[in-house]
Amino acid sequence: MADKIHIVITGRRNTGKSSLINCILGQNKAIVSDIAGTTTDPVRKSYELPGVASLVLIDTAGIDDEGAIGTLRTRKTLETIKEADMAILVVTNNRFGTHEEQLVRHFQTYEQPFLILHNQSDLVPPSVAFCREMRKRFHTDIIAFSTRQPDCSVLLDAIARLIGARKTTAPLDRLITPGQRVMLVTPIDSEAPTDRMILPQVQILRDILDHHGIGTVLQPEELPAFFAGNSPKPDLVITDSQVFGKVAPLVPEDIPLTSFSIILAHQKGHFEKYLEGTPKIEALKNNDRILMLESCSHHVSCEDIGRVKIPNLLRKYTGKQLSFDFVAGLDQIQRPFSDYALIVQCGGCMVTSRQLYNRLQPAVDAQIPVTNYGMAIAYVQGIFKRATQVFENKK
User: Fold this and answer.
1) Strand 43-49 to strand 114-118: parallel, antiparallel, or no bridges (unpaired)?
2) Using one digit for the tens of pLDDT, what is the confidence trace for 180-203?
3) Residue ranges matching CATH 3.40.50.11420 in the chain
């Protein structure tokens, strides 16, 4: 299952960014007004582009917003850009100045493909000279558009082309082939959501179907009966990381075993850096500080894997007094990365590959060891090599 494609809509105030989103959605979902600065914080709207992708359209404040509050809004717009997969820069009146240059620099910094949409083209169409210069400088599509004449087909076709040019991977790419059997071990405990499965389990179950595999879903206590029976052996077992210690002895050694968290780490983020950073657990010292990064906000219980179980496992394994900071979602990290001896990132099911990658890149640049929930648990339980071997075999 691929990430939703996040598309950030940027430009100056009153260029019609919110009207553009309403036009694409075919609904009046975003507030529009002739008053400059109507959009303040980023606003996200979902849209399905049939046969292509699920989109999240992000409306942002104008890059030319003014005053102290305007400066904060502009900063939020620029922060939002690095979370997106691609961008649409909305301009009018053949105007491309300092503000637009600033936005393009941010697109280029984060290696984001982008379109330039010339809005209100029924009033002032894009000139031949403007289109020629933009294509020459940026090698991107220039879309003449008007929300007063709302035919979005040209724009949606351009978005589809950008999406088609992206290199994307699904969780089980190169791990299974059609007809292979995948077992999902999914414990139902106090951390399981009521009457449903957690997102990584749903994502991978769907990906088994997309790869034309055969899925089996059971709980850890059902493993002995399964392997004692005459059922065909699975080609791959994927378990919840927190029951690695219970599951590993029950799965025959000749069957590849990994976890949902490690599968997601392989799909998105810094997998090689995780492999490199996980053994650094051995170097942890008394009073070291560890950063736990969660990709979602949730109720914390006594069985919470990131806030309770992993910290306890690390303290027990190392025998050290360790301090932990916890940051949820895409909240700002308050301390400098240099304060941390280790960073432990969750699987990242609630964020996109780009969001996860950009979130950890400063730590990687600072040469701070990074690991992943599933890898850290596998390491302290002595099955790190087994839990990651399947990826080495499929390179």
Assistant:
1) unpaired
2) 999 999 998 766 666 778 888 999
3) 181-263
